[in-house]
Every structure is written in structure tokens, then in C-alpha cells.
Specification:
The protein is an alpha/beta fold and 433 residues long. It contains 13 helices and 15 strands. 39% of the residues lie in helices and 16% in strands. The strands form three sheets. The chain has a seven-stranded mixed β-sheet, sandwiched between helices. Strands 1-2-3-13 form a four-stranded mixed β-sheet. Its EC number is 2.6.1.44.
Length: 433
């Protein structure tokens, strides 16, 4: 059944909308908790959560009931021309959590649009279309969001509405930051920023956009404090900071509610998406009022912040806070990280096991080198599926296995997934020698 659907998918959707698992693509037909079932009746433990989007997992009663209550009113959509109670409530909560005084929240349907809005606010405020972005980043698929995406396979267009200068990524296995200590890395990054500002910009740059931990780029993270150090230099030039928290927000990193908090910095704008809707299309940007309000024309988004998605968003956010899922992410993430390091940390194909909370990446290399090994990564990825575990792939070289399970993951589920991962890695490692 899935075979036929794959052929139909390939015949009618764009060739670049690709699916995982080759000819054996999965159609998910039901889900509960952290488990999903495919069209062949096979059940999987889900460690990727629809790319970190099903943040609470599947069929969460509180979210379902909140959405059903809204649907029962008959108002699926009204328009921001009318007051939307759930939108206001959610905006109040996000503004409070943002750490930004007198914050304004603008809701969109996707992370891409949220980043577009952040570009609009900052370029408008600074009267400059110059943007600093980070190599190996991902910020979305619109014209401008692609232009600030520093990852070749996701940034197809060379034509760009913004003028972008690139900062070094946090990759510590290769490139200019290879082998540096945290302090050296931060110094080198600040030096790099100064050099970029002096050489490839006219100085009046609008903003730096950065992911606190690069998601699509393979969960690459620079040392704590780096964004704070960069911000000091940015402040000398009046350059704004946009934190793209699409993957790192809502407590996923375990140590903090927002990823930027590990950097000792307060961004001017924060973009969010994915997990906040737990599957409903909900995203947005929260920022300083003077930036957000200053857009020169009246504007709205037809579906942005609609009654159904914001009903879901309130239920999701309340759930995260009421159940302290940040602490859960920390605890279960530690089980995974420690377990992986102990069991396969010295496997030849494992170049690095890194992560924070429930955002864990394993980078695969050719044994004894830092040369990326996408084939070994694929082998582990396929073995995981065979063992009943869904994980993700990513990284500039396609050699990073990515885990971003729902934040509701239990200790037992963490151990169950860990065992499958360890078996898969050992199998691939044995073949590499
Ligand atoms: N920013 C980051 C960090 C992302 O990971 C993504 C999606 N992968 C986006 C922006 C774009 O979000 P969306 O797909 O909702 O447009």
C-alpha cells in the first residue's frame, strides 16, 4: 500500500520533496504517546517527532480537548480583524517567557514566515538589507529564508533579496575552529565577526540571525557564551540579534527554556515554530516593541494565530510548564547521552556524540579520521528503523544521526531507544573494519 503511495507521491509532488527509507518509505497512520504505527501495522518508538515538531508526542488528551472545544464553537477561523482570545492569551504567555521587556508577538504559520518577519523588522529598523548569518544554518525555504541558510543542499537560490555575510559555524571537528578550547573558539569567532564586518559589509548591518544549536546542520553547537560574546561586538555597531529558536525553544535543551540562555545573552527578536503547535501550524516572532511595531504598513496573516492553532498552542505551552518538561528533557537526555557515550563512545565510526537535553546528535566518520561517513550513517539509520526506532539524519555532509524525541519521553523509553541505537551502531561499526 505504501509502495503505491510512494509512486503516486513521486509522480505528483516536486522531485525535491523526498522521503526517508528509499523504496520502503513509511506512511504513519496512527500515534499515541511516543509511538507511531505505519500502514503495514508496524509500530515504532519515535525519536524524531516529525522533526522535533511533535513536542509532546501523539494524541495528547489536553491538546486534543482544547482543539475540540474550539472546533465545537464553529469558529475554525475568524481573522485578526476580530479579537481572538486564545491568540491574546498565548501572546501574553510567550511575551512573558521571552525575557524581552514590553515584547510584541506576531504569529505566523511556519518558522520560515517567522524568520521572514524578523528580517522585515530588522532591515526596516536599520534601513539596511545586510544580514549576518552562520555557515551550516537552516532558517526556512522562502526566498529570503533560503538566502540566509548556510547549507548548500537547502539553499538553492543564488539570487537574494538580502545581502548576506557568513560567520563560521560551531563545527569543532573540522574547519577553522577544529581542536580549539571553548575560550579560544569564542575569541576566534569574535575575531571572525570583526573581520567579516570590516571586509564584507559596509558596517551598518541590520542583524545577525543564529540558531543557538544548529538543527538541520546536525545539532552543531558552539561553546556556551559565544552568542553573548558576539552580541557585545554587535552592540558596538547597533546590529540586532535574532535567535532562531525553532528547534531549541520550549525547554528542549534541558538546561534552559530557550537555547540562547546558554549564551548569556538577550536577543532582540526570537523566532519560534515547530513544537509550540505540537503538529498544528503555529509559529511566530517575539521581539522588542520598537522593532515589531515599526513596520511601515498595516499587515496581517490570514491564518497566523488562528483560533484552532492558538487553542493548541496554549494547551501545549501549559503542558510543557505544568509538567516541567524541561527537567524531563534534561533527565532523559542524560540517560541517552551517558548511555551512548558509555556503550559506543569508542566505536571507530563514532566521531562525536553531542547534545543537550533531548537534542542529541551522533557524527559518523571513517575510523581514525574526522572524514564524514554518510554511508555508515545511513547504515545506522536503516538498522534503527529495522529495530523499531525512528531517528533523523542531517549535517552538512549527511553524516549526523539526529534525535529529537518528544519532551514527554519516559526513562524506560529512553533506555529502549538507547538499546536499539547501540545495536545499530555496533552493527555498522563491525562492518566498517
Ligand atoms: N528555522 C529552523 C532552525 C528550522 O529548523 C526550521 C525548519 N526545519 C525553520 C526555521 C523553518 O521552519 P518551517 O519549516 O516551519 O518553515
Amino acid at each position: 500500500m505504501t509502495d503505491d503511495l510512494l509512486a503516486r507521491h513521486q509522480a505528483v509532488l516536486p522531485s525535491w520533496v523526498t522521503t526517508y527509507y528509499g523504496d520502503d518509505a513509511i506512511e504513519l497512520v496512527s500515534g499515541s504517546g511516543r509511538r507511531v504505527t505505519d500502514a503495514n501495522g508496524r509500530s515504532y518508538l519515535d525519536f524524531f517527532g516529525g522533526v522535533l515538531t511533535n513536542m509532546l508526542g501523539y494524541d495528547i488528551a489536553e491538546v486534543r480537548e482544547a482543539v475540540e472545544r474550539q472546533l465545537a464553537t464553529g469558529i475554525v477561523h475568524s481573522s485578526t480583524l476580530y479579537l481572538i482570545r486564545r491568540q491574546v492569551e498565548l501572546a501574553e504567555k510567550i511575551a512573558r517567557l521571552s525575557g524581552i521587556p514590553d515584547a510584541r508577538v506576531f504569529f505566523t504559520n511556519s518558522g520560515t514566515e517567522a524568520n521572514e518577519a524578523a528580517l522585515l523588522f530588522t532591515t526596516n529598523h536599520r534601513r539596511s538589507n545586510q544580514i549576518l548569518a552562520v555557515r551550516n544554518s537552516y532558517h526556512g525555504r522562502s526566498f529570503a529564508a533560503m538566502a540566509i541558510t548556510g547549507h548548500r543542499s537547502w539553499s538553492a537560490s543564488a539570487l537574494s533579496p538580502v545581502s548576506v555575510s557568513w560567520l563560521s559555524s560551531g563545527d569543532r571537528l573540522r574547519g577553522r575552529m577544529k581542536g580549539l578550547s571553548d575560550a579560544e573558539h569564542i575569541d576566534a569567532a569574535v575575531e571572525d565577526l570583526r573581520e567579516v564586518l570590516a571586509t564584507t559589509t559596509s558596517g551598518d548591518v541590520a542583524a545577525l540571525i543564529a540558531e543557538p544549536i544548529q538543527g538541520v546542520g546536525g545539532f552543531v553547537h558552539a561553546p556556551d557564551g559565544l552568542l553573548g560574546a558576539l552580541k557585545k561586538e554587535l552592540d558596538n555597531h547597533g546590529i540586532l540579534l535574532i535567535a532562531d529558536e525553532v528547534q531549541t525553544g520550549w525547554g528542549r535543551t534541558g538546561d534552559h527554556f530557550w537555547g540562547y540562555q546558554a549564551h548569556g545573552v538577550q536577543p532582540d527578536l526570537i523566532t519560534f515554530a515547530k513544537g509550540i503547535g505540537n503538529g498544528f501550524a503555529l509559529a511566530g516572532v517575539v521581539g522588542r516593541a520598537e522593532l515589531v511595531n515599526a513596520v511601515p504598513a498595516t499587515s496581517f496573516s490570514t491564518f497566523g494565530g488562528n483560533p484552532v492553532s492558538t487553542a493548541a498552542g496554549n494547551a501545549v505551552l501549559d503542558y510543557v510548564l505544568d509538567h516541567d518538561l524541561q527537567a524531563n528533557a534534561k533527565r532523559t537526555g542524560t540517560i541517552l547521552l551517558d548511555g551512548l557515550r558509555a556503550a559506543v563512545g569508542d566505536a571507530g565510526i563514532v566521531g562525536e556524540i553531542r547534545g543537550r537535553g533531548l537534542m542529541i546528535g551522533i557524527e559518523f566518520v571513517r575510523p581514525g579520521t574526522t572524514e564524514p561517513d554518510p554511508a555508515a550513517t545511513l547504515r545506522v539509520f536503516d538498522e534503527c528503523r529495522k529495530g523499531g526506532l525512528l531517528v533523523g539524519k542531517g549535517g552538512l555532509y549527511g553524516n549526523v544521526l539526529r534525535m529529537g524525541p518528544p519532551l514527554t519521553l519516559t526513562d524506560d523509553e529512553a533506555r529502549e531507544g538507547l538499546a536499539i541505537l547501540v545495536d545499530a551502531i555496533r552493527t555498522a561499526d563491525a562492518e566498517a573494519f
